[in-house]
Design brief:
Elements lengths: L1 H26 L5 H41 L3 H38 L7 H7 L1
Helix pairs in contact: 1-2, 1-3, 2-3, 3-4
Length: about 130
């Protein structure tokens, strides 16, 4: 129960981060057409990730939370126990994959935001400054 609550909190936090990243990339003025396309691609990736979190992760977590409550209040714990464990294990792996995907998106947004112009290393502008 505690782990599921933690996962719900993490999923909501990721949605907030995605919203922040979208605001950041919308503020960046593209230097050329390529950078404008990259901006759109990153925005699409962020939107897709947010949709996935809403439709897959949060939905599954809410159903799982309901199952936990049902298991706790039910007298037939043994019947549903194996099914619950399998579901919990699946969600654990889903959350792990989500964390990895969010981490990759963060790196992508970070590199894009640091670039002054497309093709320049984002780290050149940090060293030069």
């Amino acid at each position: 129960h505690t782990e599921t609550k933690k996962w719900l909190g993490e999923a909501h936090f990721y949605l907030e981060q995605i919203e922040l990243f979208q605001k950041l990339i919308h503020r960046k003025t593209p230097y050329n057409n390529v950078e404008e396309q990259i901006n759109r691609d990153i925005d699409l990736n962020l939107s897709t990730m947010a949709d996935k979190i809403h439709k897959d992760t949060l939905k599954r977590l809410m159903e799982h939370e309901s199952s936990i409550i049902h298991l706790i209040t039910s007298e037939q714990n043994n019947v549903c126990d194996q099914e619950f464990r399998e579901s919990h294990n699946f969600i654990y792996h889903q959350i792990t994959d989500l964390k990895d995907a969010i981490k990759r998106l963060k790196k992508l947004v970070h590199r894009f935001m640091l670039q002054k112009k497309f093709g320049e290393s984002p780290y050149d502008c940090m060293i030069a400054g």
